Each structure stands twice: as structure tokens, then as C-alpha cells.
Fold these 4 entries.
Entry 1:
Amino acid sequence: FRELNDKFGIAQCLDNLGSHKLMKGEYEQAKTLWQEDLVLRRELKDKDGIGWVLTCLAEQAFWQGDLETGFTLYADAKKAFRDVGNKWAVSMTISGMGSIMLAKGEFEQATKLYEEALAFGRDMGDLNAIAGRRYDLARVAWSRGDYDKAARIYEDTLEFIRREFNNKGAIAGTLFELGEVAWAQG
């Protein structure tokens, strides 16, 4: 793509390379790749792409513990996605913002953000998003030490997953979390 000066193709490759580096724990290399990607997306005026790269950079900041930068980047990504009408991505960024609030111990704010993302999931009929945000709300209850509420939400989520789309991975993950809550309860 560089030989062809295909900026969109280069940007797409940078997305994937950045994700690969992030998964390997090579955070600074991921950041460098995504910063180059962001420059290209801005040159191309690719708002959806800009939103995606800002989301990637937000996740990289989150993984490195820079919660303030992560939150700001998620908020910027959310605006970019709203501008192009990408509801799924708006929901994803709101969920990311909720995860940052949860990591900061700001449970009320995390709950509000997860509920907002859940509403997007319901509006879109996105079963994975609905299950995921329910799962997130259970994590908030668990983090607060409200194990009974966390267990109820996980059980409801498990029933929802089984009834609506029978995703075996999601079922296994939810059962695992129910086990963790039971363990925390003694």
C-alpha cells in the first residue's frame, strides 16, 4: 500500500498491526502505529476511521493505566461516531467509558454509562451488546460488594443468552463469573 500511496490501505494495515502489538503487550509500539493511522484518517477525512483509531488509542491508554487520557479519547471517538451515525460504535465507546469509571471506582457513573450503552444495544437489537452491558452492570454490583445483586444480574444474563442466541462462549464466561461471585460469598 505504501508503494501505491494507498492511504486508506495503509491505515487499515496500521489498525491491524496496532491491535497485534497491543495484544502482545507492546503498548508503545501500538500507540505509535495508531498515531500514524490517525494522521492518515484525518487526511482522508474518514470520520468513522478516526473514531475507530481514537477507540484503539483509548484502549491502549486504559491498558497502561492512563484512565484520564483513555476517557478523553473514548469521548472524542464517541463524537466522531455520532457524527457519522454509527450507533454500534457509539455504544462501544460509551461502554469503554463505563469501564474506565469502574476502574476508577466511580460506580454510579459506570452504572449510568453502562445503562446508556445497554439502551443503544436494545435499540439496535444487538443481542451481544445487550448481554455484554448486562454483564458489565453485574461487574459494577460485584465491585461494590453487592454479591447478591451481581449474582441475580449474571443469572438473568445467562438466561437471556441461552434464550436469545445460545452463545456457548458467553454462557461459559457468565457461568465462570457466577462461580467467582459464589466464591466471593464463601
Entry 2:
Amino acid sequence: MSKFRQSLADKVLVFDGAMGTSIQRLNLNSDDFGGKDGCNEYLVLSKPKAIKSIHADFLSAGCDVIETNTFGGTYIVLDDYGLSDKVYEINLNAAQLARQVANDFSTMAHPRYVAGSMGPGTRLPSLGHISYTEIYQAYKDQAAGLMDGAVDVLLVETVQDPLQAKAALNAVFHTLQEKRIDIPVMASVTMETTGTMLLGTDMLGALTTLEPYPLEVVGLNCGTGPKAMGEHLHTLSAHSPFPISVIPNAGLPHNIDGEMVYDLTPPQLAHDLSHFIDSMGVNVVGGCCGTTPDHLKSVVEKAARMNP
């Protein structure tokens, strides 16, 4: 059994918070982005110390798992910045950076892990934006870099389209077979305020799509704050054969003077997540958009006193 799987069985695992929000708070300039302004993923090459500092901040808060800075790490996204030839390099370097920081913080009593983040991209196959073959290959290229960078778990997250989920998971598991390695895989869907995924799929429909795969964890992330996730977590708690994760935003964002502001405080986030652990059997918690190291420190303090 991998160390990650053992930790998942032994305790409530706490993932880190928002990479995008953390990058914004650094007020980086165009030079920091190497002229690829807005491409957060490129920072692993142009400003690696900034990304390492973000990882270290979340680990200092007590998080068990940090996610690689690769949410938009497929050529589908990177091509918008003229970086489609850098897919493998970016994902490899992102994984290696996170691995270095995680190793620095790991102890026998408290091992730290790296999750390879694989986001939804910007084109949905069910809407005809991209073919299944293209998105499948895009995820294969990304997965190869993350695996070679020694991530502990692969996370297909913010899933908005069932066909996109199938392409990503097929790509991941085929690449694992080709490399003859065994790395745990997680999947996390996003439910909109309408109560369904972006294309109208409900929680049971999403679970039906994911259930055939040998996943370690299935859950929810992004989309809304924790309160709107309760009904979906009830569904997972009643029907899912997998351990459950919940990684919400710090509430719903408000546009204040052109800036997106999230108003859920660290104690409020920790309270809501501890309720899910206690009443719905949630095994993995963390933070998505708007969550800071302070949010996760509060979550860690609550989760440390609870059992999966």
C-alpha cells in the first residue's frame, strides 16, 4: 500500500488552498511571468521561488497535501500563450518543485504529499469545442509530466463535463499502464448554483460516470461555498463506493471595485468542513478559490481532532 493510501485510511487528509488567489496576492509583474502574463503555470519556469513559497505557506499551516501549479497544464490552455511545446516541461517542473517542498516538510510522524492537479481546460467535448481524441491526448501529455515528476496522487478536478472526465481518466489510467506504475487517482466534480454540473448532470449522474474507474476518492470542489454542497454530499454519502472529498471555495465571490472577494472566514470554513467530516463521512477536505493559509490552518486544527 502506498503511503498516501495508508494516510487516507488513518486520518482526515487536508489539501491546500487556492493557488490562483495566492499568486494574485504576490502582485507579480510581467517580467515575473516571463512575458506570458496571466499564465500561472509558466511561473514554475519563470519564477519558481514564488510557487515554492506558496507551497511552503500551506505546508506551514499544517496541510497534508499540496497541489501542483498545473491546473491549466494541458496544451489546450497553454497554446493560448504560445506554450504548447512546453507541456511536459511545465508539468514535470511543477511536480518536482512541489516534491522538493513537500520533502522539506515531511517527517515520519507527518508525511506530506503532492497531488498532480489536472483541471478541465477551456473546451468541453460534449459541446463540440474539442474532439474526444484531442482532449484525451492533451491529458496524456500532462499526466506523463506529472508522473515523471513523482507526484503521490493524480487529481482530475473541477470536472464540468462527463465526457471530459472520461477522457481525462482514460488518459491517466492508460499512461499508468504504459509506465507500469501505480499512483492513486482522485476525481472531483464541480456543481453550479443550479444544483447540477455545467452541462446539467446531477450528482448521481456524475457518480455513475466515475464509478467504473478504480478511483481512491471522489468528491466536490470549487463552484460554490460549502453550504451549497450539503445536498450533493448527502447523495455521495448514501451512494458512493469511494471515500469522499470536499474542497470548496471560501464562499461565493463578490465583485468589489473590480476585485473578486470571498467572504467566508477561516473559522466558518473550518466549522462547515468539520460538520461534513462528522455527519457525512468525508475523508478529504481542503480549500479552493479564495482560500488562504489562514483558512487551511483553521481547517487543520479542526480536522486533527477528527477521525475518518
Entry 3:
Amino acid sequence: MINGIINIKKEKGFTSHDVVAKLRGILRQKKIGHTGTLDPDAEGVLPVCLGKATKLCDLIGDWDKTYEATLLLGKTTDTEDISGQVQEEKEVLVQEEEIAQIIRAFVGNYAQIPPMYSAIKVNGKKLYELAREGKEIERKARTITIFAINIVRFLPPDRFEIDVDCSKGTYIRTLCSDIGKALGCGAHMAELTRTRTGSFALEDAITLGELQTMADEGRQEEAFLSMEAALSDFPKIIVSPKSTKMLYNGGRVYAKFYEAEKELTAGDIAAVFDSEHHLVGLYEVRDEEGFYIKPFKMLI
């Protein structure tokens, strides 16, 4: 069984589940999971975890992300993107300077109402299922963070491209719709590319077709990133032989029995290895009458 992560470049027309299904066929392995959905019309970075690395799916899915999106002004749709039905049309009179001023206001914490066409469950039913039945229900706003948002290119009179650095849970099509509301003319998302998830970048991603070619040539392992490499941004801790048993049992290991590559403080998360440098998991540093580490996510 393969244990590792593949940085897939999802192409338009595929759902995230489609990608997983095709990977199972290419790699002949069942234990595969993706790290966060991308709409069928969207493309870009989709890290996929295999084998033991599937334990990292939620963690990687929580990492910050970067997107490039194209907004089309003057039209609102029921799905907030180009795939939906047009609900309203307005004349576009805004200029680039006004657009730039408006989008700057979205930087920071932002209470975003999830779209009806989303996979969020309410009373056991996904919102998009209710939307397809013609139903719309009240949704609670969720606080997300826009770290940066910039206009990449203005395409007058009614289109412009932006790049967005944001936290997990951000719906870019809803951001586009909200920008349109703030501009007074409405808008929807015409195109979307995810260019980064954490340390996984678009320039390093491969398509399913490229992976199939590699598999046909028997060199598919060239596409895999190890769990250790995927967690390289976390500080590293090596536990002494004396505490290896305690480590594998999920118990506390006090600071005198491990060596950290840098000074850590309470609340830090570190990648922890046994005395033979085998990755055991992610551990949280605690300070209760002395520093120790406690399991955050076991990976063995």
C-alpha cells in the first residue's frame, strides 16, 4: 500500500470525488482521500492522501489557501457562479479605482453566509440538495479570514481578475457575489483556480493524465510526497529511546526525554519522531509544572 500525498492539478469537469475514483483505478489502491472539495468548474491544487497519510486529510484541508478568480459584474446567479441561472442584471458603471477600494474592505475577518449550493449539511441534508428542490433556508454566517486580496487585471467594462489569500472555509464565489453587492451592480464568479493549499503549489501539481503516464511507465512513486515532507513546516522533535514506548502508547513525554530542533512554547504543534527517526505523529506542547508533549494527531 502506498503511504503519501500527491499534489493533483484538478481539471475542469471533475469533482473532487471523481479525482479520488480515478486515482483508485490508476494506483490500484482503495485507501485514498482528498483534502477539500473543488467545484467541477474550478481547477487547481487538490492534495490527495494515500494509505496512512489519509489521517492528514482534515489537517491539510484546514491549511490556508490561495485562489485566482474572475468576476463578471452586472449579473447575479442562483449558484453565485457562471453555472447558475441569471437572477438579476444591472448596468455596470463602476471604475477600477472604485473596485480596488471596495475589495480592500474585505481584508480581515469577514462574516460570510455559505451559499445554498454547497455541501454543508442542515438537519442531515446537504444544502445543494435542498437548493435543487427549489428550497432556500436561513444559513448562519461563518467567520472566515481574507489575508490579502488584489486585482490582478481589470478587463473593462465588466470583468476583473483577483487573487485571494484566505482561511479554510472561504467560499470564493460568495466573496465574488458580496463584492458585487458592495459595488451595487451585482456579480458572479466566472472562473476559479486554486493556486495553493498550505505548502502545495500549482506549479508543482500534476494532472491525472500525467500521473497515468507515470504509472504506465512504472514511475508513479516520483509523484508521491512522504508524510514527513508534507509536515516539514512543523518544528521537529526527536524522542529518546527511553521514552519510545511511552510515545507509541500516546502518553506524555516530558522535555528532558526529547530534543527539539528549536525552542517551543505551550500550544505549539510539532512533528514527533522516535529515537530511530520514524514519524509517530503531531504532538502539542504543554506546560503544566514542566514542559511535555501530548498527542494531537497520531499517524502510526
Entry 4:
Amino acid sequence: MLDGFSIIAGYGGNAPAFDKGGGLFIANGSPVIRNCTFRYNSYGYGASAHIDGGSPVFEDCVIKDGYTFSRTASGIWVDNATVIFRRCDFVNHYTVTNFGANDGSAYYAGFGADSTFLNCNFVDNQIGNWFAQGDSSGSYGAGIFNFGDLLVEGCSFSGGFGNGGSAICSYGGMIVRNSRFFDNFARPYPINSFVDDGDVGAAICVFGNTPAGRVRSVDSSTFVFNYCDKGAGIYLSSNDTMPVTNCILFYNDGPNALPGEDQTPRIKRQFVGNLDLQNCSVQELWKKIPNEDPEEANKYPGSHDSDPRFVDWQNGDLHLLADSPCLNSGATNLLPPGLNDDFDGNARVIGSQVDLGCYESSLTAVPSLVATSMVTEVASTISLFNAQPGELVHITYSFAGLGNGPFVPQLGGLQLDILAPVTLFRSLNANASGHALASFTVPANAPLVSVYLQAAIRRGPGGSASVATNTVSQTIYLKP
């Protein structure tokens, strides 16, 4: 066991036999390494630690300020080993690649690696090419680069910088849950004057089909303010699908189009690839992309594109406000077995259902409304969450827009936020979980315009305490 050691300014050497583990070398060993600091280590494959075989465990360690040139991983390199990290920090690694090789900066896992990260932080890790132009590919995996099996739970990734997968890049099995991805950046790398590589998957980038016997999935995680052109939240380059459940992908963005180019739709800044999205909040999920067919609601069951209502997402506070439509709108039955705590260590399920994203809220949730896409002759749903069990919910709509709407005498004079004329669409009772669901098929002759929705609940004597939900707008599209 190592406990409380500082391993500083190790150098891996440049002879083949010593070109690894500038700070620590483990060969078929299984030590417990606790409360140790690895800092200013440089060169070699795994400048801070090189692990080849065994089952080491790292707890409450800090691995930071590593640097390596033309080698893989200025932090930790692993293969043929089962490694567990608990409450460790990987900070400010910089790996310089050469000739299209050496992906992976803070952490590299080879084909024979089984890596587990529990409640770890990855902050300001970088990877980049030595040549400004001309290598065969860009540089990937500033936080984690994985060929093996990877489990990430309760971890935070921020400030990652590279050409793709600036938090995680994986070719192997990958399970990510209860984690937070904020402010990671991917940029293009010019292979030549005409072809760029990278600019994909600023947070998570996944390549290739799922290896036989391995699993890929993302659950109960939050992706916000990650930046690149394609799939800044999640980028999947694969022929198969990857389940993504109970997640939030919002406010991920990228560069403006150059003159003469088409602007990348915002939805493709949230994700790209064959994701099996269920019960997720995704920005502009239902907005039609020009020259493409409109998305149908059954493709992404239980998902919506309503504002998640973060406390302060611009400054990284991704907790949810009481009026967030993400409260209690997840699917508890989709939670991975054993996932009992949220990112903060609180109970993973507090209300009637799990909240979306990595944070569970203990606030008293305000009734909120969400709606799926609306395509003529196709099934759609309008859902209200966080009513009191059995309450009568009134769903209304307008084609006139948002603003100071009519006062409703039956609701104690409550004023709606959709403009007159307002039509009652449906009244229905909330179930035992406070959820009211209106399923319908958009008529073939429905007008192809935007429709504005709001629900209201009558409460108090004479309706004096009645409440209205947030407003929701969707555009009705013609079935192709």
C-alpha cells in the first residue's frame, strides 16, 4: 500500500525498456494507492503511472500537471489490468501527439483494460498534434481514451480540449451513469488543405460497433455547454445503437457556419448517431431540420425538448429549479441496478419518478407540461408532471401565440399565458404519481402552424389557488 506519498517530477526515459511510468510502474501488481499526489511527471507511456497487469486500486489521489510528447498518456496508461479509481482528480494533463498516434491524455486504457471510475473529477485536460497540419488524424481522448471495458459513475468532466472525445473517447465497452459533462471543447484538425478531422463529440465520442460481449450505455447524466460542430454532447460513429436514458442534453453548441456553408442544426450539436433515446430532455429534439423528414414521437419515447430550468447553467450550476419539467419525468424502471445515489450523494429517487440528469431534487416540484412532436396522422402525447394525485388537469391550446392571455373565471380568475382565442383540448385526472397523459393522433387536416399549449389545475375555494403550468410550443408538420 502507498498512503500519502507525493510522486513529483518523474521522467519515463527514452530507452524502450524504460519508456513508461515516469512516476510509478506496476507490473502484475495489485496495490492500494491512497491519498497520493502525482505531479509534474513527464515523458513515457503513462508519465504518472504505467500499469501492465494486476488489479490496483487508487483512492483519494490527485494526478495532475503531467506532460508527454509523442507518447500516450501524460497521466496513467493501463493494459491487461483491472483498475479502480475512487474519488480521484485528474487535472491539467497535456499530451502532444505525433504522426496521428498517441491518443489519450489524462488516462489511456488498452484492449485488455477494465477501468472503473467512481466519483472522480477530470478538469482541464488537453491533447493536441505537434504539427499544425498534416498528421493522418486529430487527437482524441483528453480525459479518457478507452479500448477496453469502461465504467464511469458519479464523475465530472470539464475543460477538456482536443479534436474529439475531450471528456471520453471510446472504441470499447462503455457504461456512463450519473455523471456531469460541462464546458468541454473539440476543434477540427486539418489533415491537409481540403480535409479536416475531429470537431466531433466534445463530451463523449464513440467509434465502431459495440465489441462482442461488451456493453455501451449512458444513463442519468447531464451534458451542457460542450462545444464542437457535430455531437458536442454525444457523438456515435457506429452501425448499431447505444441506449441513452434519463439524460439531459442542452445548450451544447458549436461554431457559426462560414459564408456559403449550411449552419449545423442545433439538435446535431446535442447528439449525432444512432442513439436509443428514452426519457431524455434534448434541445430542439422535435424541431424539423430543413430537407429532412420530421421526427416522430415514438422514435424517442418519453423524451421532450422543454427548457430544463437549471439554477445557473452559464456558471456551471446544473441543479434543477422547482418548475423544471425534468423533475419526476424520468423512468425509474430504466435506472441501472444498484444506482442508488445522485451526483451529490443524495437518494437517486426522491419523488414519484427519477429526475432527468445527474442531480435529484428535494424541492417541492411545480406542475410542468411537456409535449412531443406533432406530425399529421401520427401519434403524439402531451404530459403534465407533478400534479397532486387525482387532480383534474385542463390542457388548453392556442394558435395565436404567447402573451397575456384570457382570465378564466372557473379558475378563480387565473390568467393564462397563451393568447386568445384559447381552446380546451382535454381535461383528465392525474394518476397516483401526479402524472396526466393525453395521447392523440394529429388530424390529417390540422393546420401546419405552431401550436401553443398550457395546462391549468383548479385549486382552493372558488379556484382561488389555481395554478398554470409553463407554456409549450410545437410546430405541426405534414407526414411525409
